[in-house]
Design brief:
The chain is mainly alpha-helical and 442 residues long. The chain is 69% helix and 1% strand. The protein has a two-stranded parallel ribbon.
């Protein structure tokens, strides 16, 4: 009787049983064939020191992507499994696809593309654009939709970088570091296409639990620690790398102090919101991504860290109401005020610093503004195209009633029959007793 009740209460849509395994395996086999026919490893000799340095940066990026961005979005009390595991799925697929996209777009000839460690580094960064955008649609898309989103966004981001490099002669650092603006507005546009009015019971699942918030803080700490590596890896000179690392540390430190202080100030009883800490302490690192190497004094980096923290906390307090009720955008993970607004601050700062360094000429100003605008426009346009595509019924999107719920995708002990043994009711009861509860549950 107990088992049948659980079975009746767990009739979730079979959104992945048929299409996900088949489509995913077919895609993976196709990728293997493309790698077989069109790629080869770099055969030139590389000294051990260079290999170790590139491997260290690759490890830093992987930690940021897999643990940092994975656990950063694990705060929903009934969606933590999916947050971490789907993040890993998108990263693994995104890196493979980004290597091919970058290779085909930048290959000067029709021969085999050469893969280096630096190719995998840049592919990992490109894949992180999807992990950032996914925060805006967290809990509202199944794994098939996320697979399509990976292919679309990595392709659009790679094409945008190629256009900037070919027509505006931008270096790899500037091309890559506008990732926050592109990913934020891509994710917001997809979220706008997928957003539906949330019933009261679904809004209750869109809540933060204490234990899950602590896991999300683990993701924040990983991103906080490795962000200087992220901001400096693609720079060409040692002086630029040093400036980027030091300025990122200063900006992160100030944005952390600002975020904690302003979170307490914004609460009527002076209490700190853990969600603000998850996001706003990273704002300084986002703001330093583009202009960090141009700043030669720590005080300016600290000012930008302060401004980024203020913007992020202000956005966290004001934007959800505006987005949800006026624009109809449900930004689950706060992507706009975590990455979008601080990224715009960094882009504008870069334009001002470049003009001060090179002189306020009309041509250079238009190019600098055009680069930032192109990433925003491409993010919005490709996000709209992807969002409309994800709304097609063939993907079997989860119904609104199943948003923010792991049980739609995962096998759990308390909702799966395991036979008629005497132990099943005991195990099932214990699982129900220790399941995650809402923060205000008695």
């Amino acid at each position: 009787m107990h088992r049948d009740a659980h079975r009746r209460g767990s009739k979730y849509p079979r959104s992945m049983r048929g299409c996900l395994p088949l489509w995913t395996l077919m895609l993976e086999v196709t990728l293997i064939l493309v790698f077989f026919f069109f790629t080869s490893y770099d055969s030139t000799s590389t000294d051990h020191k260079t290999v170790r340095k590139e491997q260290a940066f690759l490890q830093d990026f992987t930690v940021m992507a897999a643990i940092g961005l994975g656990f950063l979005t694990s705060y929903l009390w009934r969606y933590s499994w999916s947050s971490v595991a789907f993040n890993l799925f998108m990263l693994a697929l995104g890196v493979q696809w980004a290597v091919l996209v970058d290779g085909f777009l930048n290959q000067p000839s029709l021969g085999k593309m050469v893969i280096k460690l630096s190719s995998i580094q840049q592919a990992t960064v490109s894949a992180m654009s999807v992990l950032i955008s996914a925060g805006a649609v967290l809990g509202k898309a199944n794994l098939v939709q996320l697979l399509v989103m990976v292919l679309m966004e990595v392709t659009a981001f790679g094409a945008t970088r190629m256009m900037n490099k070919k027509f505006l002669s931008m270096d790899d650092h500037l091309n890559m570091m506008h990732i926050h603006v592109f990913a934020a507005y891509f994710g917001l546009t997809v979220a706008w296409c997928l957003s539906r009015p949330l019933p009261k019971e679904v809004e209750e699942k869109d809540q933060r639990a204490t234990s899950s918030s602590l896991l999300a803080m683990l993701g924040t700490l990983c991103l906080w620690i490795f962000w200087p590596s992220f901001n400096s890896v693609l720079l060409s000179t040692q002086e630029e790398k040093r400036n980027a690392v030091m300025n990122t540390y200063y900006a992160l430190a100030v944005s952390t102090v600002t975020a904690i202080s302003m979170s307490a100030l914004a609460h009527p009883h002076g209490k700190i919101n853990m969600m603000h800490i998850h996001n706003a302490v990273l704002a300084g690192g986002v703001a330093m991504s583009v202009p960090g190497h141009l700043i030669s004094s720590p005080w300016l980096a600290m000012v930008l860290g302060l401004m980024a923290g203020l913007i992020s906390i202000g956005g966290a307090k004001c934007l959800p109401v505006c987005f949800n009720h006026i624009l109809g955008i449900h930004d689950t993970g706060g992507v706009h005020y975590t990455f979008g607004l601080p990224g715009l601050l960094g882009g504008v700062t870069y334009i001002v610093l470049t003009m001060l360094e090179k002189g306020w000429t009309t041509t250079s100003m238009l190019i600098s503004i055009g680069i930032l605008s192109l990433y925003m426009v491409m993010g919005l346009a490709s996000g709209l195209l992807t969002g409309l595509l994800l709304n097609v019924k063939i993907w079997r999107a989860p119904p609104v009633a199943k948003y923010f719920d792991d049980q739609a995708f995962w096998e759990k002990h308390h909702c799966v029959a395991r036979g008629d043994g005497w132990w099943f009711p005991i195990v099932s009861s214990l699982a129900m007793e220790w399941r995650p509860r809402a923060p205000d549950a008695k």
